[in-house]
Amino acid sequence: MISSEIEDFLLLNLRCVLSMGLTTAALAAQAANPPTFTKDVMPILQQQCQTCHRPGEAGPFSMLTYESTRPWAAAMKEAVETRKMPPWFADPRYGKFTNGSVLTDAQIKTISDWADAKAPKGDPNDMPPSVKWVEGWQIGTPDKIYQLPIAYDVPATGVIDYQHIIVPTGFTKDTWVQAAEVRPTDRAVVHHIIAFIREPKSNWFRGEPAGQFFIAPQVKAKEQPDTSALPSDFLVGYAPGQPAEILRPGQAKLIKAGSDIVFQVHYTPNGHATSDQTRLGIVFAKEPPRERVLTLSATNGTFLIPPGDPDYRVDSTFEVATQVSLSGLHPHMHGRGKDFLYRLVYPTGETQTILSVPHYNWHWQNWYTLQEAIVLPKGTKIECTAHFDNSPNNPDNADPKRAVPWGEQSWDEMMVGFFNLVFPADLPVERILPPKNTAAIASR
Fold first, then answer.
1. Which structural domains are found in the chain, ordered by start?
2. Which of 356, 384, 388, 354 shows the shortest CA–CA distance to 371?
3. Residue 17 φ/ψ, nearest 5 degrees
4. DSSP 169-185
5. Which ranges of the chain have pLDDT less than 70?
6. 35: Cβ–Cβ under 8 A, 6 or more apart, which residues?
7. Any idea what DSSP says for residue 76?
8. What pLDDT does 18 receive?
9. Which residue in 61, 81, 193, 384 is a FRET match for 286, CA 20 to 30 A apart?
10. Closest among 413, 402, 378, 219 to 308, alpha carbons compared
11. SS3 286
């Protein structure tokens, strides 16, 4: 007769054997029926990857078809398992964002298993309908397109100062813009572009002729002004990774009648002479908006990073002068940028971290669009803290032996915490800005 202890032991082992058999059977079934491109992989690519991985966009290859994607299967597996792709750098402990490009563990496993199975295509009938992308634009078909009136010839080598060119809008009445996108025609030689709105009464670059490139006066680091409220007329920017400005229904940016677009373009030669003739596309609001959106920044331009310092701290702040809402964030630094953090300090003294980027990557300039706009009572401060790595251990450091100031070129540094504020469409901008900044705005 078997003792109860032995019987329990045998039953336990039997369950283990059966469980192992079931697991082995499940693995065998999975190996016999691996994920396919048409049924399992393509839906992930449409949702997470095709915005960049299609002709004319930043991705190095297209993911619109099986034939264009299949050669990259092994590289895709490595990129998703190491979470290099999709590029997203926000610490998940802080903030929730609508554009967070983060694959789930199940999606990563699907792509990895598909690559391991030699990337099978699958049944063509399983392919989901194609996304109707508008070639050349993320905003869909623009209502109005502005192109630089002349091309800029970029030499093969050398250093090019920031180029500016003024393009009249031709608007005879105030115009509300629901979406905007600025795009180079040769992105390989463009570090960034900003399209500013210059209002009719602004003195900014007054006297410069329209339609011609010019260089703005340079500002020394120690003379760098407080730019925390400039540019108040920022329409949209371009940099690798920076998305188009697509606002929510009922929101828009304002271009006043008689305004000009001022393009600021930073060209970076790459060894091949070429030319660029950047374009700006805008989509008009279909009806008068309830809310206006304004892009501002908390900026510090007075720092000097010591040689070799691996963790140099720089802070900036912006205080709202009336109640508004905060809808999006965009940290900007150069190659020594190490991390960037946004916090709110309310008039009550309460603080709230709303974005932390612990590993800043200047090669991919993300915007972080909040799922829910945050109400900022009058007197709330948007505080930013950044750290810079000027040590020899930083592979993006141009010269660790150099003290680094604010500067336009990539071997210098910037510390800019851009953000979007939302407020009633009829509220004057001057009501939002701290008093020290209103005079600067009026002179623009």
1. 25-126 (no CATH), 144-442 (2.60.120.230)
2. 354
3. -60, -45
4. ---SS-EEEEEEEEE-S
5. 1-32, 218-232, 435-444
6. 41, 110, 111, 113, 114, 117
7. H
8. 45
9. 193
10. 402
11. coil
Q: DSSP state, 398?
A: S
- Report the alpha-carbon distance of residue 201 to residue 443 in Å, rounded: 8
Q: Which contiguous run of DSSP H or E holds residue 194?
A: strand 190-198
| 285 within 8 A of 164, measured Cβ to Cβ | no
Decide: 261 and 196 in contact? Cβ < 8 Å: yes
The two tokens of residue 312 are: 């140099």
Q: What are phi and psi of 286, to 5 degrees?
A: -80, -15
pLDDT given for residue 55 in this prediction: 84
**DSSP letter assigned to residue 253:** E
Q: Record the tokens describing residue 160, joined without a space.
A: 């090019």
Which residues does 153 contact at the CB level (< 8 Å), separation at least 6? 273, 274, 275
- Identify whether 184 is preceded by a cis peptide bond (ω within 30 of 0): no
Burial 233-264 (b: 16+ CB within 10 A, else e): bbbbbbbbbbbbbbbeeebbbbbbebbbbbbb
Q: Which residue has the tokens 């202890």?
A: 5
- Which residues, in sequence order, are CB contacts of 3 under 8 Å at separation 6+? none
Rounded to whole angstroms, the Cα distance separating 111 from 117 reads: 10
> What's the pTM?
0.82
pLDDT at 19: 47
Residue 323 carries which side chain, given as an amino acid letter? Q
Instruction: List 424's β-bridge partners, or say none.
Output: 291
Alpha helices in 348-395, H assignment, sequence order: none
pLDDT on residue 441: 39
